[in-house]
Amino acid sequence: MPQFLGHNYIGGQRSANGSLKLQSVDAATGEALPQDFYQATPQEVDAAAKAAAAAYPAYRALSASRRAQFLDAIADELDALGDAFVELVCRETALPAARIKGERGRTSGQMRLFATVLRRGDFYGARIDKALPDRQPLPRPDLRQYRIGLGPVAVFGASNFPLAFSTAGGDTAAALAAGCPVVFKAHSGHMATAERVADAIIRAAETTEMPAGVFNMIFGGGVGEALVKHPAIQAVGFTGSLKGGRALCDMAAARPQPIPVFAEMSSINPVIVLPQALQARAETVARELTASVVQGCGQFCTNPGLVIGLASPAFSAFTQQVAQLIGDQPAQTMLNAGTLSSYDKGLQKLLAHPGIQHLAGQAQAGHQARPQLFKADVSLLIDGDEVLQEEVFGPTTVFVEVADQAQLSAALHGLHGQLTATIIGEPADLQQFAELTPLLEQKVGRILLNGYPTGVEVCDAMVHGGPYPATSDARGTSVGSLAIDRFLRPVCFQNYPDSLLPDALKNANPLRIQRLVDGTPSRDSL
């Protein structure tokens, strides 16, 4: 493997103009890794944004098939990152090798999914209303609409997914697919990983002859504001805390030209366990639920942080089963010291709240996170208590017992927006509690039945989003092919001759999917 430079990536070149050096650390030991990374200066942030802006006209003008070739090349480069790379990611994050290998496959798979989207052409959203010159009282002109990339996109790396939500992650893949150059802000928790992945992207860009500046990356703290406020940046992708996401949204809204921020921020992902399911398979549900809570040390945005059930001897016994299982779980190393500190603070808020009872889990000690189980009074949900609405990022969940079906509905009405909600039930439950699905549709982006939310399939139908504060814009998703929509905007052409139209709108284009002719769908839209 080549030596680390630790330099910023700007316009196809490496840059290290600043004197401040940063270091990544071994997540398990806290030991600093030997390579230095250079904090981006304000001038380098400016240069990175301008490089993306300079690349935008040429990059968006490329055919969809050429951009697909680029994404496929990135995927190939990611797949070629070998065992030494996996060991590096494990060292920076304390995540196991099997998880990293799986995430590497998911990351390259995301690139190939968007390459497929580009080749099939439906992302253009082409719509055509042909001219009606004889219409009375006024003729109708020929009108044709398609979508283009917004422009340069700033993407912020996530801590918990060093590959799939980071340098070459879903936001980067969707932006590049849309025709938008990227300026990526590397996460401080895995800068060495970011450099290796950025090298792979640059190799792919050079192999496929993409414009210089199609991908840029900067290191350092405190550079986010300058990046979001830069006039060249036209959209932001972010995965992280509610505090961080809100700050970026406020910065973007305060610009002379406000821009959209697509932020995934906070979710407690309620699991509703219904009575007949407990009667049929309480022990199995207890094991599966516990496994979901502690998976990956609870460091998933879809971790089930709230479990709701109807008061009964069966639910009391189920609670005790989960308490026993949680108490038996080992401590785990978290991504970094900052994540562990945030977990500790979240636990302290729960422990200090008079309406919340600690049920299971050993006291925090040392440098690892210990799984915990709490029980909260249902009034906290119904009354909108903020402590119960806040995500505790780690291997912890809170049980809530409701008196009856009406109180269950009231509790769910009190929930803020979420990424997911899960119903555990038998057919008789689903018939009795039929009102849950339409209620949850208003609260979440994905509803699961008899499954667990810690697992997000990368495909066309997936929605990884939800009402605020789960995300800043509930109309989109950060996982799945629909994620491309966030970085596109519509443009309409009126009375253009066929020869001057974009290929996606020409009469002979075979890729048109959403075509409207004279107000009715044509055959190629069905």
UniProtKB/TrEMBL annotation:
Enzyme Commission number(s) of this protein: 1.2.1.26
Q: Which Pfam families match?
A: Aldedh
Does Oxidoreductase count among this protein's keywords? yes
Enzyme class name: oxidoreductase
User: Would you indicate the residue range of the signal peptide?
Assistant: none
Determine the domain of life of the protein's source: Bacteria
Query: Catalysed reaction(s)?
Result: 2,5-dioxopentanoate + NADP(+) + H2O = 2-oxoglutarate + NADPH + 2 H(+); 2,5-dioxopentanoate + NAD(+) + H2O = 2-oxoglutarate + NADH + 2 H(+)
The record ties this protein, via Gene3D superfamilies, to: Aldehyde Dehydrogenase, Chain A, domain 1, Aldehyde Dehydrogenase, Chain A, domain 2
As one GO molecular function, the record gives: 2,5-dioxovalerate dehydrogenase (NADP+) activity
Q: Which UniProt keywords apply?
A: Oxidoreductase
Ranges of residues in domain Aldehyde dehydrogenase: 21-457
* UniProt record similarity statement: Belongs to the aldehyde dehydrogenase family.
Record-given protein name: 2,5-dioxovalerate dehydrogenase
